[in-house]
Amino acid sequence: MTVIQHATRTGLADRYGRVATDLRVSLTDRCNLRCTYCMPEEGLDWLAKPELLTDDEVVRLVSIAVTHLGVQEIRFTGGEPLLRRGLVDIVARTTQLTPRPEVSVTTNGIGLARQAEALKEAGLDRVNVSLDTVDAETFKKLTRRDRMKDVIAGLAAANDADLTPVKVNAVLMRGVNDTEAPQLLEFCLEHGYELRFIEQMPLDAQHGWDRSTMITAEEILGMLTERFHLTPDDASKRGSAPAESFLVGGGPQTVGIIASVTRPFCGDCDRVRLTADGQVRDCLFARTESDLRTALRAGADDEELADRWRRAMIGKLPGHGINDPSFLQPSRPMSAIGG
Length: 339
Ligand code: SAM
Ligand code: SF4
Known about the structure:
Blueprint: H1 3-10, E1 12-13, E2 19-20, E3 22-26, H2 55-68, E4 73-77, H3 87-95, E5 102-107, H4 112-121, E6 126-130, H5 136-143, H6 148-160, E7 167-171, H7 181-191, E8 194-198, H8 217-227, E9 230-232, E10 244-248, E11 254-258, E12 271-274, E13 279-281, E14 290-291, H9 293-297, H10 302-312, H11 334-337
Parallel strand pairs: 3-4, 3-12, 4-5, 5-6, 6-7, 7-8, 8-11
Antiparallel strand pairs: 1-2, 9-10, 10-11, 12-13, 13-14
Helix pairs in contact: 2-3, 2-10, 3-4, 4-6
The protein binds S-adenosylmethionine and iron/sulfur cluster.
S-adenosylmethionine binds near residues 37, 80, 169, 198 and 335.
């Protein structure tokens, strides 16, 4: 039996031959920023504590994913994962699994300066830090909080703790930070961070996304090439990696663009998501979820939970359909799904 055939039988395979090996785990839907492309100023109706998986429940499901379902990469996200008290312990227990998965965290960076060392000691491999601007005023406007310095300090701490390569995620919004692509790249080149732009997606809680005003990958590339010499990075074959990568000035540093809207990569998707309340989502844009928490709390054994998880993947659609006129945004926003 080939590796693919084996994975199709035992792993998280869908009807289109894709096998999910990359698990995104949301540890909380709460956040200490209010990015305008993500959530409203007043925040959201957060999940109540009893609904959230406990640390032990998170580790149990992650462990089943790794030991029974072929998951190789775990990314903890949210909401803001650094707000989860048990994060360091969850990371430590995840990095002790066999086979050892790659473990990373996506964070807004606030509080990372304090936690970077402990996360490294817990075995964390890498961090992705979201930073959409290097202008303090724009940061305040975009996130509705005056915390840019904390993020910059968090990035530096991650680098010092060797949580590398430190990746920076940036979303551009027209009229807000859309002219800042070159400055962001300059900042990242100067500090040795790997910058990736993400096209804004219809996943905001306010349903305010507008296809006609979003900044496209092509526009971003246009702005960057006015200032930098970019060449396609052939070494990093796109595969299931969503970012198209470019060498800056001949390399070795790179910049990536994740064109989820204008150049979808659903055919190569290897992702699956677990929400903070124990629901499996086969796609960011899925309109249905599969409940693992109820079975888990009712005493299901690992085999049964693994089976439920496998079955949850069968309905995965071939694509997200954002560009289809009949597209409907999922009812959960990105912050509650785990981006
Ligand atoms: N709070 C953490 C952070 O901001 O990195 C983790 C969760 S956040 C939902 C994960 C990533 O999703 C961030 O890089 C953020 O910029 C991105 N994101 C949030 N809403 C988005 C949207 N509507 N379109 C594209 N990216 C979005
Ligand atoms: Fe919070 Fe991340 Fe959403 Fe910004 S993008 S509001 S930091 S969850």
